[in-house]
Every structure is written in C-alpha cells, then in structure tokens.
Amino acid sequence: xxxxxxxxxxxxVLVLINGRPQSIPNLxxxxxxxxxxxxxxxxxxxxxxDVLFGDVNPGGKLPVTVARxxxxxxxxxxxxxxxxxxxxxxxxxxxFPFGFGLSYTTFTYSNLRLTANHILPTGRTRVSVDxxxxxxxxxxxxxxxxxxxxxxxxxxxxxxxxxxxxxxxxPGETRTVSFDVSPDQLSYHGPDMKRVVEPGExxxxxxxxxxxxxxxxxxxxxxxxxxx
Length: 228
Fold this sequence. Notes:
Elements: H1 2-6, E1 14-16, E2 34-36, H2 44-52, E3 107-114, E4 118-119, E5 125-133, E6 139-149, E7 160-169, E8 174-181, H3 183-186, E9 188-189, E10 195-196, E11 200-207, E12 213-220
Parallel strand pairs: 1-2, 4-12
Antiparallel strand pairs: 3-5, 5-8, 6-7, 6-11, 9-10, 11-12
C-alpha cells in the first residue's frame, strides 16, 4: 500500500508503529521521510501530529541497528572485527546504523581534540568537539562517544558506545561538547576476567551516530610520556 501511495507523487511520510525494527529497504528510497514511533501508547496521535506539523522538532536516535534483510541477522554495531564478512556481492552495511536519527535541522562536527593524547593506564584526559546547528530551526543533537581498543590481549569490538550528550542549539549556534575519558571508559574484562587498561593505542570517535564519526588517537603508555 505504501509503495502504491508513493507513486501518486504526493508528499507523504511513512509512520512506523512497531515493537521491533522492520526491514524496509524497498520503501526507504521512495519515502521523503520516515517516522519511527515504536509503541507510543495512548498519546500516539498527539505525538505524531506534533512532529508531522512541525510543532516539535524530533531529536531521537535509534537504540538498535536496523538490518536490510534477515540474512544480516544478528546485526549490531559493536561486533568483533572479523564478525561481519557478509555474502558475495552483498553489503554488510545496515539499513540504518545504531544511533541514527534526523530532525528538521542539520548539524556539523569540527575541531576534535584532546587535552592530552598520551596518558598512563590510571590517567585521564578530555575529548571535545564543536557542534554547530547549520540549519534554519532550533533542534537537539545527541553527540555520541565511541571507543576502540586497537590492540588488546583479547579481541575487542570495533567500537563501543562510552558516552552521549544531548544538546539544544539555535540556528547558527556552535557549542563545545566534552567527555571525560578515564579508566572507566578504557578498561575491559581481560583474559583473567579482571578489569584492566592495557597500554597501547585507542581510537576515540565522536559523531551523531555509530557510522558518521570523526576520530582521534589516544596513546595509553605504561611510562609517563610528555604531552604532545
């Protein structure tokens, strides 16, 4: 039915009310906009109307990864490096990545930096990025911090969500969003099942979802190293 309506050329919005992600790769290219509602409850009509008529600028992000088809299952963003090899002539990219979400405005990220890019295993640093509202409406962006341990005694995921902040920005406004990075974010349960921060290189990634990210390297050194 949705595909038939799309052929009329009228401006339409696909509203999804569901309890789990749906694979709709045939609909996505034909829909000007898609509103994922999950189970909204008794105020479904009010909430959907507020968004569709522009009374509310949505700023939600997907808490799951949405697969293209059943052949991709299980699909999640924090997989191991060799876990998602896919099929011949097929893509391993999801339909929508974890953390994805649009609004009636746009945001850009710039000037990613660290207060210290060399720290001890017990040390701390702060990663910051400038976020600008480049659209014409006030809106909220959820800035997400992911971390990857490049070399470790046990295999680690390609990235793990370690923090997020929601910021409201008026058109043209730029705000610096910062995250403290400490052993709480860098440690994991090692082969002996004890939490450890292993010396080596970590990659810190910030962005609006688990795919569109900017990265910066952090070195955890067993010896004190001068700040660079």
